[in-house]
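INFO batch 0412 | record 1 of 1 | parsing
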Amino acid sequence: MVSERFAIAIAEIVIYAILLPVALFATVRQRSYFNCYFLLIIFCGLRISAGGLTVASENDGRTNRNNLIWSQILGAVGLGPLLVVGLGLITRVHDRNKHCNLHSAVRTHTARFLHVPNLLALILTIVSGVFLSSDDRLQQRSGKQSAQMGLSIFVAVFAVYTIICFATLYALDGVVKSERTILYGLTLAIPFVFLRILYATLAVFKDNNNFAIVDGSATVQLCMAVLMEMIIVIIYCGIGIFVPTERQVERRGDYQRPKQLVYEK
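INFO prediction complete | emitting tokens
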């Protein structure tokens, strides 16, 4: 009989195999922001790889613990690309802001700075995977500590990112019409990103069998992680497909990039 975790992994592989060319199309279309959208392709690849490792582990009767651990670690690593895409998109919104005031400049530079701690959290998550796959209890303990540090940084980055999004939404009059769709999409994705980070945090900090990294509940993982990520990727891909490209915006004259930053009162 096919296990629930096996079925979820197969569904992930199929769905992300479909989303991969969609992400590729969004990346090519928004080539002015290639570095941002390209991470959607990487994320889809990570999810396909994680699903493959889960399928391999289930076929082995879950005797290969390393495959199972790394499938879950790849799941945690996926938080990094999702946050980077969000930070890149909110930075784009502010780059085209009508009013180059102090508040807008602060939000822009803060969003760009958040890439640094986000990268650090990503590195810590990868390191934790290496340690957790070890048979040495001391290394496993170090791996759990690294995972907790990484998740703590992810939480902090997400909190500041959320503040930036809602602060920008509050100052909607300063956002050009062509970029408001991006802002609406990012705001819509925030609750799903929150649930995904909440699941990862509970998995790392709580000793609850339902949220365990390796042997947790497949149903909880499906509802709080798998489905949340799919919705986020679909929203981000939708932004890349339906939002006008930079060339289209410039052709229509929807915004004018200021030659010099002037702080308005």
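INFO post-check: Residues 256-265 have pLDDT under 50 and may be disordered.
INFO record closed
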